[in-house]
Amino acid sequence: MSDIGAPTAYRELRTRAGPGERARRFVKYRALLLMLVPGFVFLIIFNYIPMYGAILAFKEFKIMGGIANSPWVGMKYFDKAFNDPHFYVVLKNTLIISFYKLLFGFPVPILFAILLNELPGRRFKRWVQTISYLPHFISWIVLSGIFITIFSLEGPINLLLKAMDHLPIIFMADEHYFRSILVGTSIYQSFGWGSIIYLAAIAGIDPQLHEAAIIDGAGRFKRMRYITLPMLVPVISIMLILSMGSILDAGFDQIFNMYNAQVMDVADIIDTYVYRIGLINANYSYSTAVGLFKSVVALILVLGVNRIVKTIGGNEHTLW
Amino acid sequence: MVKRMKWLAAGLSVIQVGLIVSACGNSNNNDSPSPAAASGTAGASASASASGEKMKLMVWNFDADKTNLNGYAMNAIREKLGVDLDFYTSTNDPDAIREKLLLQIASGDIPDWWKEVPFADADKFADQGAAAEIPLDLLEKNAPNYMKWMEKNLGPDPMRYVRRPDGKIYSLPVLWTLASSSEVLGYRKDWLEKVGITKTPETIDEMGEALTRFRNDDPDGNGKKDTYGMTAVTTSGQGPSIAAIFSPVFGAYGVYPGATVDMDGKAVRGEVEPGAKEALTTLSKWFKSELIDPEFFVNKDTNLDDKVISSKVGAVARSWWEFIQPEAFFSGKYYVKLREQVPNAEWALSSGPKGPDGKFGITEGNPMLGTGIQFGIQLEKDQAKMAKYLQMFDATSFDMDLFTKIKYGEEGVTYERKEDGSYVYLPPYDKEEERTKFGIGPYYHAPASFNDYDFQAPFMTRKDLMPVKEEAASKGIGKYDFMTPLSKPVYTEFKDALDQMTIKNYINFITGRRPIGEFDAFVAEWKKAGGEQVLAEAQAKLDELNKK
Amino acid sequence: MVYRKSLTGKMIDALLYAGMVVLMFVTLYPFWSQIVLSLEEGASAYSTGFMLFPRQLSFEAYRLAFHYTPLWTGYLNTIVRTVLGVVLILVFTALTAYPLSKKDLPLNRTFTGLLLFTMLFSGGLIPNYLLIKNLGLLNSVWSLVLPGMISAFNVLIMRNFFRSIPESLEESARVDGAGYVRIFVSLIVPLSTPVLATVALWVGVGHWNAWFDSLIYISDSRKQVLQVVLRKIVIENDTSNLNAMIQKMSTNTKYTGRQLQSTVIVLSIVPMLVVYPFVQKYFVKGVMVGAIKG
After folding, report:
1. Which site among A4, A14, A35, A253 would you substitute to test the C interface, given the most C Cβ atoms closer than 10 Å to its Cβ?
2. Contacting residues of A for C20, CB less than 8 Å apart
3. Which end of chain B is more exposed for a tag (fewer CB within 10 A), N or C?
4. Omega before A230 cis (within 30°)?
C-alpha cells in the first residue's frame, strides 16, 4: 500500500495538468486525490443519482407514471404550503424550539465533558460516562411516558410545589412550560451522548500542555479556561456549523409522543404537521416540497453560520 | 499498488452499473404496466396457468415469525382450491405497509392484491390505474358468501359505498362489524355499591351524582381524596380524536362529536350542534366540581389505562370487551388487570346516560374500516386468476371447515372441542411456538379480513359466558360517521385544522378557559375555517346515498 | 498527573463527585425502570408510575424471549450489518477525510461543497428504493451498508480532527522520506484513535438502532434486523393498533404486554453497554501515542 505512487496515474495527471502552481499541487497531492476516489464514487451513486427525486416537489406524483412521467405543476406545492396559515405557525414553532434546543442544549455536553475530564479516578469516570449516555438508547415512547408521569398532577414536581404551598400546575398542558420541558428533556436525553466527541477531542490534547501549565503555577480553572477550552474550539465550531443542517428538525419523535391539543399552538412543528396531514392523505409531492424547503433553509443557515465563524475566528475553524 | 488499481477498477465499474441501471429504471417507468413488466412471479404464474399447471396465488405474510409456508393451514388452502401458494412478506407496522406498497407499485412490482390501505390511498390507486376493476358478476359468482355477509350488514347493494363515479368497483370493503357497537360507558360497580348507589346510573343527573360520590366519598377506601369520577383522552391510537372526549355525555344531548351523521336526511357534525353546547355546559360544571380528571387532555392511551387500572377513576368509555372476562370474548384488559389489584372489582356497563329528552348514545366507529382489498392492475387482464382469488377469500373466511383448519388445525391433534363448546388447543399446541411450527393461527392473510363474528362466536366465547358477552355487546349503541368510506377531498383538506380547533376549544370550554357563552362564536369560527364546505360536501354525499 | 491538590481543590472534587453521582442516578432511571418492568410479574407491570424494584419477580419474559428464534436471527443480522458498517465506513471516511484535511489540496472547496450538499439535500424514498432495486441489492445486507457509506458529517468531523494534528509531525515524517499514504497509515491513523472511536461509536449505534431501511429493503424475514423484530413485538402488543387487535381477536390470542416489551428493550441495549468499555480504551490511547510522539 505504501508505494502508491502509481506510475500510470501519475503520468496521466502530469500530462493533463498545465504548468504552474495548480499543476504542482496536483502532482504533490496525486496520491491523496486518488484516495478521494472511492468515497466520491459512493457519494455519486448513493447520494447524487437519487437526487433527481427532488423534482417531485414540482410535479404531481402519479404512481404508475413514475417520477419522469408525472406532470409538472410548478410551484403548486410550495404555494400550498405558503398559503396555509398553519404552516407559518409550525415553521415558527420549529425555529423557536430548535433555537432553544441549540442555545441551551449545545453547551451542556461541552460543559459535561470538561467537568468529567476534571474528575479524578478513571474507573468512576467511565461509569459516569457510560450511564450518562443511557437515555440516548431509550426511545421517546418510553421516555415520554416517564416524563408525563413526572410532570403530572401527582408527580414529584407537583408534590414539591404542594410542599411549598404552591398551586399545582399541569405542566404538560401549559403553553408557558411546554417548550421548556421539551428543551430540558431533550438535553437530558442527549447530553451524555453528545459529549463523546468533546471527550475525544479532550483526549487528543497533549498532556504536556497541562504539565507545562502546572509548572507555571496555573490552577485548575486557569487550565480549563486557557488550555482545554481553546483546544476544543475547532470541534465546537464545526459541531455548531453542522448542527445548522438540522435546524428545521426540532425532534419529531419527542414532540409527537409528548404534545397534546392544549399546547398545539406552541408545540406543533413542521414534521408533526406533515405527518398528521400524511395520515389522512399521503401526498408524496407535498412532503418532497416541504423537505426541499427544509434543505434550502438549512443550506442558508449552514453557509451563514460558517461565514460568521469565519469572521470571528478566521479560516481555521470553518467548513471551508 | 496492484491492490489499489483493482479498487479503482471496481469503483469505476460500480459507477457504470449505477448509470446503466438507473437508465433502465427510468425506461421501465415509462412502460405501461403490462403484467409481464410487473413482478416476475405474476408473469410466471400467468403463463403457468395457461399451460395447465396449478395457478399460483399469493398470501400476505405480515408476521413472518408466526407463519409456515408449507404448514397445515397453507396446505389446507392449497388442497381446497387446487392452487399453489406463496407469500408476500411484509411487516405489521401500518405506516411501513403503506410506504412499502407505494414503493412496490412505483417501482413496477405491483402485487396481485393488497389490503388495509387508507381510503384516500385506495382512491388514488384506482384513479391512477394501479388497481384493477372488480366486475360485480365475477364477485357474485365467486364470492357468494362474502356478498351475503355484506348484504346482511349493509342491506341490498352493499357495494354502493365503494362504487366510483365511473360506476365501477375497485375494492372489496372490509367490514369490522364490531366497530358500530363497540364503545360503552363502564362504571366501577364495586364503587357504586361502596358509595351507596344500587343501580347503574341511567340519567345524566344520576351520572353526575355517581361521579360526585366517586370524587368525594372515598370509593377506594384509602382515606384520601384521590379519586375522580371520569376521565378521557383527546388522542387515540395515531391521532387526535374528538370522539374520545366524553362522548356519552354528548350522546345524552343527542349529538355525536367527531362524526358526520345522518339526522333525518341532514348531514351534521356533532361538535357544532346546539346539543354540544349543553353537553359542554354539563361537563364544565362537572370539571368545576372536580368530578373530571383535571388532566384528561394530557392523557395518552397508556395513561388512561393506567388511571383506570390503578383505580383513580370510576367511569370511562371504551370498547365493551375490555370490561368483561377475556374468555367471554377478547382482551378483558380492564377486567383482568384491575382484578389483580382489586379482587372484587366489577364493572357495570351502560350505553351512556339519558339526557333531558331521553336521548343517549356514544360516538361509534364506521364498520367499514378500510378499503379492504384491491387487486393489482395486471389482474384486470387475468380474470381467471381474480376469480380464483375471490374463491380463496370466500372460502378462508366463510367455509367453517377451512376456517377451522387455518386457525385451529386438526381436531384431535392440535385442538379439541370441549363440552361447553369452546375450542381448546391440545398440548403442546397450547404454545404459540408449536402452533407456528405446525402452521396454524390467525396470521395467514388470505385475506383474514372478513370477520363474521356470528360465524366465529363458537371460537371466541365460552358457552357459559355467552350471556355476559351478549349483555356487554348490547350496550354499544350510538351513531357513526357515514362519510368514512366515501371519497371526501374537502374534508381531507380541512380535517386537521378543524379537529385541532375543536379539541382545543372543547378543552377550553370544559376547563372554563373560554366561557360557554362563546360556543356560538366557536361554531362561526369553525364554519369559517372550512367547516361550511365540509358540511356542504357531506350533504351532497348524503343526498346521493339516500337517493339510491 | 502528579501534583498535589489544595484543600479547595479537594472540595471541588467532592462537589463534582456528588454532582456526578446524582446525575448518574437521574440518567440511569429510564433504563432501570425498563429492567424493573421486564422483571415484574405481568399484572403489576402496567404502571407508568415510579418503580425502583420489581414487586413480584418474574423471569418469564426473558424465558420467552430466549426461546424466540427471530430475536436471535435479528441479533445476528444486526451484528453483521453493524460490524460491516463500522469497518467499511471507518475506512472510507478516513480515506476521504485525510485528503480534505489538506487545505491546499486542489479543488478542496469543490469536494467539500459536494460533500456538504449531500448532508442537506436528498432525493427522497422512491429514487433511493429504485436505485437499490436496480443495483440488485434488495434483500441483501449491502442495501443497509452501502447507501450510508459516506456521511458528510463524519467526514467533516474527522477532517477537522486530522487538521488539529500538528503539522510539524507530518513535516518531519516527510523529511524522513515517507509518502502521504505511509504518513496516513502509520502516523495519522494511530494518532487519531479518539476520533476514529467516536465515529465508530456513532456509526455503530446508528446501525444498531436502524430499522427503516431494513423494513423497506429486506423482505426475507431471516435477514431482518433486530430493531425490526423488536418493533414488531411492540406493535403487536399495542392495544390501540386496530389491525393487530382484530388479528389477535380472531383466535383470542393474548397480549403479552409491557413486560415482554421492556424485556426486548433491555435486551437490545445491553450489547451496547458491553461493547462500550472496549471502545472507550481508544479515547485514552490517543493521548499515549501523542505523548510519545510529541
Report:
1. A35
2. 115-116, 119, 124, 128
3. C
4. no
Average pLDDT value over all residues in chain A? 86
Model confidence at A108: pLDDT above 60: yes
Buried/exposed B109-129: b ≥16 CB within 10 Å, e otherwise:
bbbbbbbbbbbbbbbbbbbbe
Looking at residue C42, its pLDDT comes to 59
Helix (H) or strand (E) holding B375: strand B368-375
CB contact under 8 A, A120 and C13: yes
**pLDDT tens digits for range B109-133:** 899 999 878 888 888 899 899 999 9
CA distances from C136 to B17, B204, C217 (A): 10, 65, 11
Band of pLDDT at residue C291, cut at 50, 70 and 90: very low
Residues of chain B with Cβ-Cβ distance to A37 below 8 Å are: 8, 11
pLDDT, one tens digit per residue, over B166-214 is 889 999 988 888 999 999 999 999 999 999 999 999 999 999 999 999 9
Output the pLDDT for position B455. 80
pLDDT at B510 over 80: yes
Q: Which of residues 112-141 of A touch C (CB under 8 A)?
A: 115-116, 118-120, 122, 124, 126-139, 141
**Closest chain B C-alpha to C251 CA, distance in angstroms:** 6
Domain boundaries B51-179+368-451, CATH class: alpha beta
C151 to chain A, any CB pair closer than 8 A? The answer is: no
Nearest CA in chain A to B484: A280
CB pairs under 8 A between A and B: 119
Q: Is residue C103 part of a domain?
A: yes
| ipTM confidence score | 0.86
Q: What is the 3-state secondary structure (H, E, C) of B191-239?
A: HHHHCCCCCCCCEHHHHHHHHHHHHHCCCCCCCCCCCEEECCCCEECCE
Quick one: fold of A70-317? MetI-like fold (1.10.3720)
Put simply, whether C94 touches A (Cβ < 8 Å) is no
Average pLDDT over residues A287-307: 92
- Please give the CATH superfamily to which domain B183-363+483-547 belongs: Periplasmic binding protein-like II (3.40.190.10)
Which residue, among B91, B311, B407, would best test binding to C if mutated, counting the most C CBs under 10 Å from its CB?
A: B91
CB contact under 8 A, C283 and A199: yes
Q: Which of C197, C38, C26 is nearest to A135 (CA)?
A: C26
Q: For residue B541, what are the CA distances in angstroms to A294, B163, B258, C42?
A: 38, 13, 18, 48
Round to whole Å and give the CA distance between A25 and A22.
Answer: 5
**Which of B:99-118 have CB within 8 Å of C?**
99-100, 102-103, 106-107, 116
Q: Give the DSSP H/E element, type plus range, for residue A21.
A: helix A21-28
Q: How confident is the model at residue A276 (pLDDT cuts 50, 70, 90)?
A: confident
Q: A71 in helix, strand or coil?
A: coil
Show me where the domains of chain B are located. Answer: 51-179+368-451, 183-363+483-547
Low-confidence winner among B349-353, B371-375, B500-504 (lowest mean pLDDT): B371-375
pTM for this prediction: 0.84
Q: What is the CATH number of the domain that holds C105?
A: 1.10.3720.10
- Summarised one tens digit per residue, pLDDT across range C173-218 is 888 888 899 999 989 998 888 899 999 999 999 999 888 899 889 9
Q: Which residue has the cell 476516489?
A: A37
A217 touches chain C (CB under 8 A): no
Q: Tell whether the model's pLDDT for residue B535 goes beyond 50.
A: yes
Task: Return the residue of A nearest to B495 by Cα.
Answer: A280
Q: Record the cell numbers describing residue B35, joined without a space.
A: 403484467
pLDDT of residue A4: 37
* In chain B, residues 330-359 whose CB comes closer than 8 Å to chain C: 330-331, 333, 336-337, 340-341
Map grid coordinates 457509506 to a residue.
Answer: C149
